[in-house]
Design brief:
Number of strands: 0
Distance between the termini: 28 Å
Helix content: over 70%
Number of helices: 6
Strand content: under 5%
Largest sheet: none
Length: 166
Amino acid sequence: MEISSLSWVCFWGKGHIISCLTLTALMFIGAFFTLLNAMLAIAWASITILDIIQYQLRLVLLRPVYHENYSPYSAERTLIILILQYLQLIGCFSLLYFFAFNSDFCGGLNVCQSIEFSIVTITTLGYGNIVAQPGSLGALVASLQALIGVFFLGLIISTAIGRAKS
């Protein structure tokens, strides 16, 4: 089995579907969390964010350079992966804001506010109704999310344009 197809199975196989269901369950049962569940949510969200970043870096930057017989994935497959990862990043960052950086926001955040802040930040809209305290770790994570969001939007748009051309 080729490495690229193996990574597809590992990243988007049954385990990934189960982890997405876990993310959904953590977000909507957030009112009943304990400290252990919060720690698990923070760890899971952080690992998932790093996993998505390394997957895209490997796919976009390293694969074309190190593989002599490089042939890109189909545009449809790449676009689906990018959109799903973009949505997953929104969920993971909202988990981080809700569980890890809640005290970095004036008045704290509830689940809906953390999701709203994550969407507004990753799309770089910046409404300003929810703001992390300047100089806090939550503000640094929000800046990181905005950079990742710009990168992903660029990938999604370029993939969609490539699909339209073919």
